[in-house]
Amino acid sequence: MDKKEVLKKIAKRLRIHSLNMTYTAGSGHPTTCLSMAELAACLFFGEMRYNIHDPFDWANDEFVLSKGHAAPILWACYAEAGIISLESLKDLRNISSPLEGHPTPRMNWVKSATGSLGQGLSIGVGIAAAMKLAKSNRRVYVFMGDGECAEGSTWEASNSAAELGLNNLCAVVDINRLSQSGPTMHGHDINTYTRKFKAFGWEPIEIDGHNIDQILQALQKAKQSEKPVVILARTIKGKGVSFLEDKNGWHGKPLKGDDVDKALKEIGPMPDIDAKKYVNKPDKVAPPQFKKRFDFEKLNYGKDTATRRGYGNALVSLGRVNDAVVSIDGDVKNSTYAEDFFDTFPERSFQSYIAEQNMVGMGIGMAVKGYIPFMATFSAFLGRAHDQIRMAAYSMSNIKMAGSHAGVSIGEDGPSQMGLEDLAIFTPIPGCVVFYPCDAPSAESCVETMAQHDGMAYIRTTRPATPVLYKKGEKFPVGGSKVIKKSSQDKALIVAAGITVFEALKAYEELKSRGISIRIMDAFCIKPVDRVSLIKNAEEAGNKVVVVEDHYPSGGLGCAVSQALAGKADIIHLAIKSLPRSGKPEELLDKYGISAKHILKAVEKLN
Amino acid sequence: MDKKEVLKKIAKRLRIHSLNMTYTAGSGHPTTCLSMAELAACLFFGEMRYNIHDPFDWANDEFVLSKGHAAPILWACYAEAGIISLESLKDLRNISSPLEGHPTPRMNWVKSATGSLGQGLSIGVGIAAAMKLAKSNRRVYVFMGDGECAEGSTWEASNSAAELGLNNLCAVVDINRLSQSGPTMHGHDINTYTRKFKAFGWEPIEIDGHNIDQILQALQKAKQSEKPVVILARTIKGKGVSFLEDKNGWHGKPLKGDDVDKALKEIGPMPDIDAKKYVNKPDKVAPPQFKKRFDFEKLNYGKDTATRRGYGNALVSLGRVNDAVVSIDGDVKNSTYAEDFFDTFPERSFQSYIAEQNMVGMGIGMAVKGYIPFMATFSAFLGRAHDQIRMAAYSMSNIKMAGSHAGVSIGEDGPSQMGLEDLAIFTPIPGCVVFYPCDAPSAESCVETMAQHDGMAYIRTTRPATPVLYKKGEKFPVGGSKVIKKSSQDKALIVAAGITVFEALKAYEELKSRGISIRIMDAFCIKPVDRVSLIKNAEEAGNKVVVVEDHYPSGGLGCAVSQALAGKADIIHLAIKSLPRSGKPEELLDKYGISAKHILKAVEKLN
Fold it and tell me: Which residues pair with B519 in a beta bridge?
């Protein structure tokens, strides 16, 4: 049988699976699978090389299903390839099945969760960049929907791919004209897509997405390009079933009752072909060997130093003992101090420019290939990548993020530059650890801990220089805290972190001069918060607690402490409770109620 | 004096102000002001029409400084125009001055805060769309930096402007080649910008941004276009001061010491010209007259109805009594049920396609002109606009957002589609109110309340249909709650919202059959939470509290209740504590610990 016939038959099998799976599940997106059946068949059984026995084999080409709602056909491809059983397809969307409604790594060939549209291309950029860095000649295929081309993140990724010269990256856009609630902006005007991608530095190839010859030719041509290539495939949503074809109103709806029989009849009987035979087995490729230590040499700090500077220093030191560490910047490396890493390890440094969504998406992609990406920008701007960060959790991604210039303590630049809700981005995410060190040595140690932690981690750093409180090399573990002032006479426990630790220390000195002692806890690990120590120290301080943080009241330290101490302690929570403004840092700490003066007052109020 | 000479002199005055202001403040971005001096002079004293006595006059052209770090030159323009005193410029960045480091509406000619890059163009799209809707022939000018063209949001906005045919929108890009940490991706390759904007449906005009004639001609030409126009201006960062011109490393740095004298000497003496005389006064324009009621007729609900359906119904009813209400969709209107509004009021309905950043940015823009935009998408995808939402607070924007498909109760579609951190996006924001109704009548009433609330509001809706609990027209005020089960014998207070209200009711019935009574509070207003009622009802239930929510543990209801009841009550917090998966809604509620069964257990544990 010739290749074209084989692929036509496999496409038909994929169509039948997609209809049956969503029918059995009673939900899902069959029509979006039907439009891509030939494209999927050609990719999985004509083009890509992969070792069906090992999803993590460096010999594999990588695949990202950016249009995650087409999960059924992805599962069908893996079943046809012999990776999972055909039988398992009937469990689509069952609570016990790894074949979820949208792809997640619960199915181990999925390396990054998708389903929030427009994220796949950045992930592909990250994977492709990682392959280039590891000197691998494998390729990455990102399968996209046309609707998600409206997402800005798609264009951030396009920029980045072109700028990085990722000719090992091929995007395929399934232009089926119909989105969830109606036609897409450009419908079947393929030429507009061509103009856009071309303007963004890509090589576009227009094809009929149901024509096997054209698909195969385009995939061949893609390999010869110096640029990233996008295959713009004109397709019909619901292709193969006349009453679904090109019809609005069928998005995300499985066939029910007689409809499925009608549809299956129209498609015809299941072709008898063993698709497994047509998987391209790759030649052997040795995985890159990383030096991968985490215990780096810490620096000595004589004078006041900003925690962001501590972060930057630690990143360089970590990079020296760990080849897997890479750094991605959003054009603020001279502020986050990631620039030292850029200067020291230019080949492991990636500039995403002012495109935070792509910065994080790229990081997810690089983590797919075993790199440990550290991404940094102002904490205020990490929200730009909120959805990528959310999805990274479902990707079970080992990415590390740093947000500098936290809080009103940045001063004159004003509220747009103040991260005051960044902790609330990271604390909800299961498994994500969150650090907020107060001095340079603890910042360094937190970087070590977050690198060691297998999973997502966030570190919040401060703009102004702060005094050196801790000794070089002291440990700052996940879930830890430090009690830095303590006596048997303490009248209150002050729970502070970052810049407010020093306000608490000022309040301590002032109260001491009045003969009153307070206990101070540096809650450098916001999540998981040190519940045991909080309970013990609160109790020893008469269960009178002041939490003071340079953050809005919800989602940060106050929230964590209130939950840990529920029912146990009286708590006064000092936080930024109104919209701040430009001013000097010390003026702002005072105006918004988180300075030593306010801590003093809170202690008085509790006693 | 001819116009060109006038504008040259004004540009020089703006340069001198920018240098002096940032020198006096000791911080700020002078070089980014210097590159745009001619462009700003031409816009404010050659092109735009505005009534210096009224920033809200509908006769005004509107201006958005998307590159917000150029605030000093904006303040200088307003001073030269006679809107603020020249004297006030020396207060730049002072805590008592409205002239903040980046623009905020504390200065009343600023309608939307900027400083997080790439947001201005969407705001301009919203303003331009609002003007078209109000049949105004005024124009909008959005002033952008080249660096922010890397932000995907810029391209979302570009798409939107072209699709909406906003030929009253003119963007000016100050292409000065240098960004914060180094050169931009495209440097002075103006042609690449031209290709991109052209591909996105705009009319690009390339000019020398320091040539007054070219600037004025471009602004004239822009008015003749059928399309939105972008003026791509090649400029020199630091223009006018030889040791700053085109030099990397000067971003965000004021001149210090002798440098400022050297710079001022090179620019020459302050030209003696009264710029006020050159402001184009607009002809009178009548503002649009809105029917602006909020008390709409509610519907009767006989059977189980999803709260998202209640939202959709309410939006239509509100639209009938209030002409200022507009709806913006992110291509999911058939899921959020905003589609009914689209069908009923097509002229007040705007499709942003799958581009949530632009959806919210547009909303901020429309609110600038007095419209009340309701924007809806899946709660999971609102995080895409996290930074726009954050900035909307600093814009003091009257925007309303709805997030549907909250929590694991959506079921089979899986985690990527579940909003589990959406409350944590909105609860930190000062002034933002947050609703989470449990049935259709309360959803309707919450829409009324959020429309009436002057400021940001968020409503969270649920996918499955839920029983009807409340009477038509019952009030659901800001900061309110409802105690729906109560006796003098209550053994615990269950605080629930949305879908978990019904789990609490199931637990109530089960416990009742065992002779145990519990109190149930429907905390439909998550923020501000009803602290007074919480304290009272917790106390009456023995200070034993169970909070149960379909959200991650941080930033939602549990956080608010813990803070409200700190030191007063024992609290068990049931929330989604690990990464969820696909499954049936009831299976997931149970698996992740927020079903009736888990409430029962928690009550037992507390007693």
Answer: B493
Query: Quick one: angle between helices A3-25 and A212-224, nearest 10?
Result: 100
Flag whether residue B101 sits within 8 Å of chain A, measured between CB atoms: yes
Catalytic residue among A356, A421, A448, A503: A356
Strand-pairing partners, residue A349, are A327
CB B357 within 8 A of CB B385: yes
Mean pLDDT in chain A? 97
> In this predicted structure, what is the pLDDT of residue B1?
81
B356 given a catalytic annotation: yes
Residues 6+ apart with CB under 8 A from A214: A207, A208
Q: Which portions of chain B are predicted below pLDDT 70?
A: none
Residue of A194, A331, A350 to mutate, interface with B, max B Cβ within 10 Å = A331
- pTM over 0.95? The answer is yes
**Phi, psi dihedrals of residue B317, rounded to the nearest 5°:** -65, -40
Strand partners, A229: A170, A203
- Cα–Cα distance between B375 and B388 in angstroms, integer? 13
Chain position carrying tokens 């990490």: A382
ipTM of the complex: 0.98
How far apart CA B236 and CA B34 sit, in angstroms, is: 8
pLDDT at A93: 98
List, as ranges, residues 300-329 from A with C-beta within 8 Å of B.
329
What residue has token string 């060190």? A437
Average pLDDT rounded to a whole number, residues A57-67: 98
Gap from A187 CA to chain B (nearest CA, Å): 12
B198, B335, B559 member nearest A554 (Cβ): B559
Q: Please give the residue of chain A at the shortest CA–CA distance from B554.
A: A428
Contact between A424 and B588 using a beta-carbon 8 Å cutoff: no
Q: Are B117 and B84 in contact (CB under 8 A)?
A: no
Tell me the residues of chain B between 502 and 531 that have a Cβ less than 8 Å away from chain A. Answer: 527
Of A413, A565, A581, the CB nearest to B95: A581
Separation of alpha carbons A358 and A164, rounded Å:
13
Mean pLDDT of A535-564: 98
The reply to whether A568 touches chain B by the CB within 8 Å rule is yes
State mean pLDDT over A583-605. Answer: 98
3-state class of A183 per DSSP? strand
Q: Which of residues 49-68 of A touch B (CB under 8 A)?
A: 68
CB contact under 8 A, B196 and A199: yes
- Catalytic annotation, pick one of B62, B80, B356, B444: B356
Please compute Rg for chain B using Cα positions: 27
Rounded to 5 degrees, φ, ψ at A72 are -55, -45
Name the residue among B339, B415, B554 with its Cβ closest to that of A428. B554
A420–chain B Cβ distance below 8 A for any pair: yes
Q: Is B429 on the interface with A (CB under 8 A)?
A: yes
CA distance B398 to chain A (A): 15
Q: Is B516 left (phi over 0), alpha (psi -120 to 50) or beta?
A: beta
- Find where tokens 């009103």 sit: A408
B-chain residues near A333 (CB < 8 A): 181
Burial class (CB in 10 A: 0-12, 13-18, 19+), B71: buried
Residues 6 or more apart from B516 whose CB is under 8 A from it?
A: B491, B603, B607
Q: What is the pLDDT of residue A1?
A: 81
- The string of DSSP letters for B452-512 reads HSSS-EEEE--SS-B---S-TT----TT--EEEE--TT-S-EEEE-TTHHHHHHHHHHHHH
Please indicate whether, in this complex, the C-beta atoms of B114 and A416 are within 8 angstroms of each other.
Answer: yes
Number of H helices, E strands in chain B: 21, 17
Q: Which amino acid is at B601?
A: K
Q: How are beta strands B519-522 and B482-485 bridged, if at all?
A: antiparallel
